[in-house]
């Protein structure tokens, strides 16, 4: 039986992994484990198709240990016993246990002693938050690593590799993949490499070759094989960003109906990554201090959406969009940090006042570091007048409060009181 392309292209060593460089890049934790031959059991959690199985496969390939795959929900205790017996014979087995959050107590009790003695190196994979969904007895014996959604550039790299690999990939075919079709594969699969590779393979094997035996894959073919329409047919991809821009501007302008329309375009395209990322930006850029609770609710909605995936993800995200549209608005936070950055980038940083500099090292006293600093908690109201900005910027004002919401109105009142007390 022919294995799917995503299965065949699984990494055989750490260098073949795309993305997840925070775990497998030079000097990072999993690469350090493999290099030092000091593997420990771990749990990898993150969205589907982001590389959990690939990391486990690459670890096994890099260490030459036996590699077995089981599913905590469907495989039995007897299947675990077979792996344990193999571990006794060979010394060590790496066991990828998918859906580890569904491991029942009987299987867990069987596994624990094998994890303790190191015969089985468990790599648990889950889409659920392990701090909530996984039994503490397993958690305490594993390290927990978050696997993040792949970026379009990561998926593009994997597609290029698959097209050129004649042994495991599609290199035996003459495939012409149009740029906009490749963009559809990389951007509209929500960081899910498995979906991108399997969509590519379906397109390649279901499209007749031309007279020169070239298989020409166009955007409509890829759309059909992914069952996800592009947001636009614009070859340069500009309209994709136009939709995102219109989405943010509609929320900033408090037009809930327009914002829901542009959200619907992103949902129809299956672009969960762009939608959730943009919502988080909007919450803190455009609503910000006018309504911090709405920002918190948006974070929770994005977390729920990433756990649910489409189609259900549209429900908490629609609530967040309406909430942000109808909320008071303030951009004072982004305006403040950008004003401060402008001074720093213009070379106006200035010298940090001596009394604010670090005094927790030998020799600091001789340099008069920290000398004259007044500890605010020693004074009434936990405040004392003293200069914090460098001399060259001591009159600078970056934060310009707004009064569109009750929270920032209260912040403005406190800010004004403090400025008067400073004599500024």
TrEMBL record:
InterPro entries: AAA+_ATPase (IPR003593), AAA_assoc_2 (IPR032423), AAA_ATPase_RarA/MGS1/WRNIP1 (IPR051314), ATPase_AAA_core (IPR003959), DNA_pol3_clamp-load_cplx_C (IPR008921), MgsA_C (IPR021886), P-loop_NTPase (IPR027417)
Lineage: Bacteria, Bacillati, Bacillota, Bacilli, Lactobacillales
Biological processes, Gene Ontology terms: DNA synthesis involved in DNA repair; DNA-templated DNA replication
Claim: ATP-binding is one of the keywords in the record: yes
Family membership noted in the UniProt record: Belongs to the AAA ATPase family. RarA/MGS1/WRNIP1 subfamily.
SUPFAM superfamilies cross-referenced by the UniProt entry: P-loop containing nucleoside triphosphate hydrolases, post-AAA+ oligomerization domain-like
UniProt GO molecular function: ATP binding; ATP hydrolysis activity; DNA binding; enzyme activator activity; single-stranded DNA helicase activity
Species whose genome carries this gene: Loigolactobacillus bifermentans DSM 20003
Highest taxon, organism lineage: Bacteria
This protein's name: Replication-associated recombination protein A
Alphabetical keyword list: ATP-binding, Nucleotide-binding
Domain (AAA+ ATPase): residue spans on this chain: 38-150
